[in-house]
Amino acid sequence: MDRDGYSPFGWQTKNPPPVPIVIATEWPQFAQADFSKVKERMLSPLVFDGRNRLDPATMARLGFEYHGIGRAAVAVG
């Protein structure tokens, strides 16, 4: 993120979008985001992880509804 708060990854900005997150890449930035801060700014803490980069139990503990594409279970916090 630059000094003006811009980031190509919306949730790292000062005002991330309050919409569900869809992860469709294996870029490490997505797995390393501070999801506790991300959740604070979301209207609906919902994540669709198309690459299964995130831990379902951790996401549930943080209060997210987490869908790992291709995984059998849905984690809900």
Radius of gyration: 12 Å
Helix content: 10-25%
Largest sheet: 4 strands, mixed
The tally of helices reads: 3
Q: State the low-pLDDT regions, or none.
A: 1-6
What does the overall shape look like? globular
Q: How many strand segments?
A: 4
Order of helices and strands: EHHEHEE
Mean pLDDT: 79
Description:
By secondary structure, this protein is of the alpha/beta class. It is 21% helix and 18% strand. The chain has one domain. Strands 1-2-3-4 form a four-stranded mixed β-sheet. The longest helix has 6 residues.
Nutshell version of this structure?
The chain is α/β, with parallel strands linked by helices and 77 residues long.
Secondary structure blueprint with pairings:
Blueprint: E1 21-23, H1 28-31, H2 35-40, E2 46-49, H3 56-61, E3 65-68, E4 74-76
Parallel strand pairs: 1-2, 2-3
Antiparallel strand pairs: 3-4
List the main descriptive attributes of the protein structure presented here.
four-stranded mixed β-sheet; disordered N terminus; 18% strand; 3 helices; 77 residues; alpha/beta
